[in-house]
């Protein structure tokens, strides 16, 4: 498939890349968006393992970096399975205290501009994907027509240390109840992403 890199999960290499990611999270309490993107871009195994958040991506074998959707929008990463024809479109934002919520003159917190910007970018991707779904390029790139493939959006932003129970309840409600074109846009912190990947790696090594 054009625009995608073929990949197979190599647990030995992934373990190394995951440890580097975990150490980065331990060393720095806050991370800028570009810093995180630069870290991931050279770690193909780590990119592919993001797909494990979705049951339909248990065997990811395609990844793409900075993919241009319709020539107008750029997606940070896409992880896909050419067999199930399921794809995860990933947007990275920063990992700072005000990444998801911010105070602005009232007791209750506002959604931050970073969060709203990241979410709106995924919405635009969905719009453009729907717009180009009948083209031959779409079928060639993703291996099928609109009705033959599945895809979801994933916004990765913030740190666990800045998310208390009340904030998490708001995040959960948002991602479970706001549906865009019949699809959910999920949200993960970078800590939660590392935990998901670690659980899978440890399970594989143990078995």
Q: Please report the number of helical segments.
A: 7
Give the overall pLDDT as a whole number.
92
Q: What composes the largest sheet?
A: 7 strands, mixed
Q: Mind telling me the C-alpha Rg?
A: 17 Å
Report the β-strand fraction as a percent range: 15-25%
Number of strands: 9
What string, H for helix and E for strand, traces the elements in order? EHHHEEEEEHHEHEEH
Enumerate the spans where pLDDT stays under 50 for 5 or more consecutive residues. Answer: none
Which class do the helix and strand fractions yield? alpha+beta
Strand order across the largest sheet: 1-2-3-4-7-9-8
Give the N-terminus to C-terminus distance in angstroms.
33 Å
What is the approximate shape?
globular
The proportion of residues forming helix, as a percent range, comes to: 40-55%
Explain what the structure shows.
- It is built from 7 helices and 9 strands; from the N terminus they run βαααβββββααβαββα.
- With 207 residues, the chain is α+β, with helices and mostly antiparallel strands.
- Helix 1 packs antiparallel against helix 7 (190-206).
- The mean pLDDT is 92.
How are the SSEs placed, and which strands pair?
Elements: E1 5-6, H1 11-27, H2 33-41, H3 44-49, E2 62-69, E3 73-81, E4 86-92, E5 101-102, E6 110-111, H4 113-131, H5 136-142, E7 150-156, H6 165-177, E8 179-180, E9 183-188, H7 190-206
Parallel strand pairs: 4-7, 7-9
Antiparallel strand pairs: 1-2, 2-3, 3-4, 5-6, 8-9
Helix pairs in contact: 1-7
